[in-house]
Amino acid sequence: MRGLAVAVVGLGYVGLPTALSLWAAGATVLGLDVSERRLRDIRTGSVDLLPAQHAALACTESAGDFLLTTDTDVLREADAVIVCVPTPVTPAYEPDLAALRAACATVVERAVPGQLLVLTSTSHVGTTRELLLEPLARRELTAEQEVLVAFAPERIDPGNATHTPERTPRVVGGAGPLSTRAAALLLRPTASRIHEVQGPETAEMAKLWENVFRAVNIALANELSDACGHLGLSPIPVIEAAGTKPYGFMPFYPGPGAGGHCIPCDPYYLLGRLPGDGTSAPLVHTAMRALRERPARITGQAAELLAADGLVPAGARVLVLGVAYKAGVSDVRESPALRLLSLLRDQGTDAHYSDGHVPTLTVDGRDLVSVARPQDTEWDLVIVHTVHPGTDLDWLDTVPRVLDTRQRVRPHAPAGTR
């Protein structure tokens, strides 16, 4: 890696840790992002990273081989280019490739003979061919001859110190054997091991398979959790009991839905390439609909808890505890809490939120501010959405009604209450 210049396009939750791993391995990193604000946040350390990654980022401040820029011309100076831009979905749950198309077009336009180009952004099968290989060929830059091209989907779990990228295997599929091998060597410092596959399409489908699997099982865990509630059971002891089986079972836990950059989005990149009537993947269609509707189900449970004591949602003081899509991060992309707060307000609820990682939040065009000391307010109901490490929950014992969407705060209480 010494002396190798690697451009990382997109310095978000994937690109920044990737850039730090490559820099730590000895590469000169050219970090490229279209957002000046993102670059400022990186320079000041105001980004979601694990402690070890923050330490590495601090070390780059005095280094001359870790460049942060919006200048796309630096791509011509790179030996390798790694594309790490987001692939969200539209409000209609259709794949949104705008950022990826723009990034790939820029990379292709500035590609030079001898470069290795690696796409990591999750997308539909055929993306690498459509956005890199075919446009490069039109420039007479043929893969395996003038340039090397591969797809290597990211596997980064923000805020998880157990499954850091360096401890996680990575899949690589190149346009040919030379591309696969070159990408494997480049990414070796960023993974525990490299699993090579034949062709980018196999790697693309592998990433979709991973996250469709998770989405379906999360939806199933929510459904079985509701079934436990109807039967007077708490789901966590049931899951723990089922988890004693050493084969054929993997525990998934109930929650408020699915948020973040992967589970609520990636399955649509598969569904978007299948017949739109839902007949080709009915189980996936049903699971995604169930995840979308989960906040509405929780809103109904909240109304039921209030009604049990003669209260109605209109005017009730309700707190949503934690709004980040997962514990330990400040990311609210696709967080079920956004929809939950919107639905509560639609019912006339005096809804607020408290999250030390998210000081402000915009819901339905209205700016909300996190309640700094929720224990100082008398709440009619607290809905536990996300519990960050170190969060004090003892004060919940004084709250008359607690709806724990994850069934983990009081895991052995009846489902739906504390």
Automatic annotation (TrEMBL):
Keywords: NAD, Oxidoreductase. GO terms for biological process: polysaccharide biosynthetic process. Residues 319-411 form the UDP-glucose/GDP-mannose dehydrogenase C-terminal domain. GO terms for molecular function: NAD binding; oxidoreductase activity, acting on the CH-CH group of donors, NAD or NADP as acceptor; oxidoreductase activity, acting on the CH-OH group of donors, NAD or NADP as acceptor. It comes from the Bacteria. Pfam families: UDPG_MGDP_dh, UDPG_MGDP_dh_C, UDPG_MGDP_dh_N. SMART domains: UDPG_MGDP_dh_C. The keyword Oxidoreductase applies. PANTHER family: UDP-N-ACETYL-D-MANNOSAMINE DEHYDROGENASE. Belongs to the UDP-glucose/GDP-mannose dehydrogenase family. This is UDP-glucose 6-dehydrogenase.
